[in-house]
Amino acid sequence: MAITYELIKQCSKTGARVGRLYTPHGVFDTPIFMPVGTQATVKAMSPDELKEMGAGIILSNTYHLYLRPGHDLVAEAGGLHKFMQWDRGILTDSGGFQVFSLGPLRKITEEGVTFRSHIDGSKHFLSPEKATEVQMALGADIIMAFDECVPYPADHEYARQSTQRTTRWAERCKKAHTRKDQALFGIVQGGMYKDLRTMSVQDLIALDFSGYAIGGLSVGEPKPLMYEMLDHTVPLLPSNKPRYLMGVGTPDCLLEGVMYGIDMFDCVFPTRVARNGTVMTSRGRLVIKNAEFSRDFRPIDPECGCYTCRNFSRAYIRHLLKTEEIFGLRLTTTHNLHFLLNFMKEMRKAILDDRFLAFREEFWTHYRK
Ligand SMILES: [Zn+2]
């Protein structure tokens, strides 16, 4: 096994749990948030800065790296870790999500997906075997099976056929995957249908993956529906394997996801909104570009210990963003990532002390959506 999961503490009242993930590039405590480095870089951050914030694993996108600079080039450079000088964990997605998001630019068959590059319109083909080959060349610690993310809304028949194909594709990924120093995760689909989620979990467990992701959530459905799906799906997953909820990264969703027993999360949200001038705090979001902050000389979040909050005021950061200074983006990105990584750390502490529900209650008292 390339990675192993050790359960450290199970919350006595909820599904929340603290665990430890052993990977070829370090040992990380879960639940964990993975910053997204689409193009082999977490935008605006150096690897050292990420480490200083306590980032353990980052996520990189197979679709983007396959198109540019190409997986062969990354392999030639010695793999993704060496290429980008990141010696901690990396997870790559399968490229499926991006390819399916291309809409009219792609065509699905049982064999795989034909698509046109969003960059130059060139024609490509991604199959379970190809997605696995690309991810083996990139060399992340954890790679994902090639799946179709069932869109929302989708009727039961479409969701069933798509989910069954995802399982067949997962089996092909497993056959194609030969790197022993890499873990392959299966992805649970099933749309918003409990019977299909159950079917998907059972079929994937039979294939025995190193971990299980829950895909097809946070795709536009109302949050209560997402929570209903988590409540149904997570308990079906084996407790001795990591569980990863894909594409979720707001504090409220992280908190609820942890409560249902999720161990890993990723999302472009904190870094993307940072570059648009929105910052996260324990009280909710601030649009730091707004005029109300022009003479606000307090830090973004007085309770935050990040480099940005220790040194700079809202007024200064607003000024940098208004004048389109690069440093402004670095400051907001630093804060948002530090904030979320620290939030995960506090949740782990609360679970270890068996006071997760009290922690959750306190969060909701202060947090404004
Ligand atoms: Zn901060």
Could you describe the 3D structure shown?
The protein has 369 residues and is α/β, with parallel strands linked by helices. It folds into two domains: 263 residues, TIM Barrel, CATH 3.20.20; 62 residues, no CATH class. Helix content is 42%, strand content 18%. It is built from 15 helices and 16 strands. The strands form four sheets. It has an eight-stranded parallel β-sheet. The chain has a three-stranded antiparallel β-sheet with strand order 1-2-3. Helix 7 links the parallel strand 10 and strand 11. Helix 13 crosses helix 14. It is globular. 49% of the residues are buried. The mean pLDDT is 97. The site of zinc ion has 9 residues, from helix 12 and helix 14.
Notable characteristics:
369 residues, alpha/beta, TIM Barrel, 2 domains, eight-stranded parallel beta sheet, three-stranded antiparallel beta sheet, binds zinc ion
Tally of contiguous helical segments:
15
Using only C-alpha atoms, the radius of gyration works out to 20 Å
Strand percent estimate = 15-25%
Mean pLDDT: 97
Q: Would you tell me the structural class of the helices and strands?
A: alpha/beta
Distance N terminus to C terminus? 41 Å
The coarse overall form would be globular
Share of helix, binned: 40-55%
**Count of structural domains:** 2
Strand order of the largest sheet: 4-14-13-12-11-10-6-5
Q: Which CATH architecture of the largest domain would you pick? A: Alpha-Beta Barrel
Bound molecules: zinc ion
**Which stretches of 5+ consecutive residues score pLDDT under 50?**
none
Describe the largest sheet.
8 strands, parallel
Organism: Sporomusa ovata
Pathway: tRNA modification; tRNA-queuosine biosynthesis
Family: Belongs to the queuine tRNA-ribosyltransferase family.
Catalytic activity: 7-aminomethyl-7-carbaguanine + guanosine(34) in tRNA = 7-aminomethyl-7-carbaguanosine(34) in tRNA + guanine
